[in-house]
Amino acid sequence: MKEKAVITAAITGSIHTPTMSDYLPITPEQIVDEAVGAYDAGAAVCHIHARNPETGVPVPDVNLIKEIITKIKSRCNIIICITTGGGLGMTTEQRVAPVTLYKPELASFNAGSINFALFPVIPRYKEWKFEWEKQYLGMTEDFIFANTFKSMKEYCAKFNQVGTKPEFEIYDSGMVNNVAFMIQAGYIKKPVYIQFVMGVLGGITPSPENLMFLVDYAKKQIGDFEFSVCVAGRAQFPICTQSLLIGGNCRVGLEDNLYLDRGKMAKSNAEQVAKMVRMARELGIDPATPDEARQILGLKGIDMVNY
């Protein structure tokens, strides 16, 4: 185990919809407040998506993203990890635009294509706050989250150009091979930062055995690397705790899980971060500060961003 672990808060994402939780942040002000609250609770990194402030639909609006990240930076020095996953159906250009424009320290980098399915949740809800929600979730029955080798090569070039560290999102074991290939091809340099994403229908399921397999497999294919884990749904806290036990970092937040305990919804990202901090400290692990996380992850520094 480490003495310090990086805790990330994924603030709003593009998976959950407003009907699912009254606490899901939608407006720039809400997202900023949630990010600062997560920082106060012990998060070193916040993962940022933008949503239409009127309806909550995920949008590729670079102006909204700029408003969010600028206001967060004015209030604390948390590391801002901007999404390049964006929202379902966004183009490659829309997804990578915030990295090119704002040159963040860290940004997500999806390491392969998968069936990214959300449609099974639809029967749980009889009524919807907004018309777009059911259609948005339903279209995932016939949706491929495309991240081709051509687009990943282009992403690597853009990340390298602006000095942004990729956070490679690994949804299944084949994506470990993709990262290994990109290293061998010279698209990216080691050490790399990997995040194992578990629990999305279309990707690997969350279990202790699967996490151990992924970490061991990545060591064989890549060698040394820094890693984190994020989990969709109820296995979030158990598997994130396992990650800490085996030398990794972890991500919590309302993007991944809307609950704090069984049957109890999380009222904020900060609640989830505070719970993860308590669990880490029980294991003798302290949450890394943003500056400590910059050292752990090998980031360029907040003074080198363009916002």
Which labels suit this protein?
10 helices, 18% strand, alpha/beta, TIM Barrel, 307 residues
Could you give me the name of the CATH homologous superfamily?
Aldolase class I
- Quantity of strands, as a count: 14
- Output the radius of gyration: 18 Å
Tally of helical segments: 10
Helical residues, percent:
25-40%
Q: Any guess at the CATH architecture?
A: Alpha-Beta Barrel
Averaging pLDDT over every residue, what do you get? 97
Number of domains: 1
Uncertain residue ranges: none
What strand line-up does the widest sheet have?
Answer: 2-3-4-5-8-9-10-11
- Biggest sheet overview: 8 strands, parallel, barrel
**Envelope shape:** globular
Q: Return the structural class.
A: alpha/beta
Beta-strand percent range: 15-25%
Order of helices and strands: EEHEHEHEEHEHEHEHEHEEEHEH
Report how far apart the termini are.
Answer: 35 Å
How would you describe the overall organization of this protein?
The protein is α/β, with parallel strands linked by helices. It has ten helices and 14 strands. It is 38% helix and 18% strand. An eight-stranded parallel β-barrel has the order 2-3-4-5-8-9-10-11, surrounded by eight helices. Strands 1-14 form a two-stranded parallel sheet. It has a two-stranded antiparallel ribbon with strand order 6-7. α1 packs parallel to α2 (62-75). The longest helix is centred in the last third of the chain and has 15 residues, at 208-222.
